[in-house]
């Protein structure tokens, strides 16, 4: 019907509806306008059979065990992924990452069962076994974070070294000298990067690195609360660099628990994808990145990878903004 209305071939209509680069912008607009007028609904089952694709993106993400506060950055990532897919044929399948070791099983199910066209992964490690598996399987994927594997792969990442350097440097500029670091487990790539930035900021200010001021923990509020309270009671700490909003909330509570009289002049820094600091009585130093933009970019780059764009063109590193 669309072809008859416009006086063009069925092939021309199919190309326009499928977004083929062989179709001019003018023709695509005409075809889509008539399709809308006629109430045309694309038969996705037929498209899947013809192309061999599922038109599903799988987001295998690590969900927090802390059910009281959760992880607002994770929700922002998912929002951005869904926004990018909104006007496409792709749907999003979110998988809660199980315990370490079992997530590879989830990937095997996706690959062997042809459950998706591509995968988004987060919380990468230096020699990430999941990345190795997907490279070997030939499944398109993108990571939120980098690895140190020799084989290149698509990634989108926040410059974590810069963010930690930025937050630590700003606390030093404001007069803090005994600054602790509350971060995630050392196995994660981003934690190693943050440690480098933290140490660099201290060195540039002529301050000594003190191992007793660093805590690597499960980044949850309760763990951060206990760690912060212990640091305040046993060291001369006057500021804390926090890996995320959840750790910030726990650390603030911990400082209040241990030394409420010091809280007003205590310094906090956080790497954040939210505006949480706007709602606190004392605003922390914030190294900000848009979690929604990050999710949008992850989905956009994955779709481009599925469509054949080279890996080397799909590697993006963004810096945080000081707030």
Q: Summary?
A:
The chain has 323 residues and is of the alpha/beta class. It has helices spanning 2-6, 10-17, 25-37, 44-51, 72-85, 103-112, 129-137, 160-173, 189-204, 221-234, 245-258, 291-306; strands at residues 56-61, 91-96, 118-122, 141-144, 155-158, 179-183, 214-216, 239-242, 267-272, 285-288, 315-318, 321-322.
What does this structure look like?
Residues 1-51 form the HTH lacI-type domain. This is LacI family DNA-binding transcriptional regulator. Keywords: DNA-binding, Transcription, Transcription regulation. The chain is of the alpha/beta class and 323 residues long. Helix content is 44%, strand content 16%. It has helices spanning 2-6, 10-17, 25-37, 44-51, 72-85, 103-112, 129-137, 160-173, 189-204, 221-234, 245-258, 291-306; strands at 56-61, 91-96, 118-122, 141-144, 155-158, 179-183, 214-216, 239-242, 267-272, 285-288, 315-318, 321-322. The strands form two sheets. It has a six-stranded parallel sheet with strand order 2-1-3-4-5-11, sandwiched between helices. The protein has a six-stranded mixed sheet with strand order 7-6-8-9-10-12, sandwiched between helices. The longest helix is centred in the middle third of the chain and has 16 residues, at 189-204. It is elongated, with a radius of gyration of 24 Å.
